[in-house]
């Protein structure tokens, strides 16, 4: 257990930051799952709208430093590629 006042404050801050980061990750993953669901069961327009929402969520998560920018780029690339493959099929 922390003994100093500053260490106790740091623990409180870490708990709050971890909760925020977990919320942002969960939000991003939900947006991606919604996109994949629209891609599989919806129309192309619905999938495109869901992709836009997922892109925003991924970009915000990377901007906050929760995921690496290269991981964000890789995720976006794969999602976009999936949309194009399904549109041509």
Walkthrough of the structure:
Helix content is 87%, strand content 0%. With 89 residues, it is an all-alpha fold. It has one domain: Methane Monooxygenase Hydroxylase, Chain G, domain 1, CATH 1.20.58.110. Helix 1 (5-41) runs antiparallel to helix 2 (44-63). The protein starts with a helix and ends with a helix.
- Straight-line N-to-C gap: 59 Å
Estimate nothing, just give the exact number of structural domains: 1
Beta-strand residue percentage: under 5%
Class by alpha and beta content: mainly alpha
Residue runs with pLDDT of under 50 for 5 or more positions: none
List keywords for this structure.
0% strand; 87% helix; Methane Monooxygenase Hydroxylase, Chain G, domain 1; 89 residues; mainly alpha; single chain
Draw up the topology in text.
Layout: H1 5-41, H2 44-63, H3 69-88
Helix pairs in contact: 1-2, 2-3
Question: Could you give a quick summary of the protein structure above?
Answer:
The protein has 89 residues and is mostly helical. Helix content is 87%, strand content 0%. The protein has helices spanning 5-41, 44-63, 69-88.
């Amino acid at each position: 257990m922390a003994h100093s006042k500053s260490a106790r404050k740091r623990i409180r801050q870490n708990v709050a930051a971890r909760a925020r980061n977990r919320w942002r990750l969960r939000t991003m993953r939900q947006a991606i799952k919604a996109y994949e669901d629209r891609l599989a069961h919806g129309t192309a327009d619905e999938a495109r709208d869901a992709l836009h929402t997922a892109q925003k969520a991924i970009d915000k998560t990377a901007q906050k430093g929760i995921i690496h920018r290269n991981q964000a780029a890789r995720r976006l690339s794969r999602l976009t590629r999936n949309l194009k493959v399904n549109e041509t099929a």
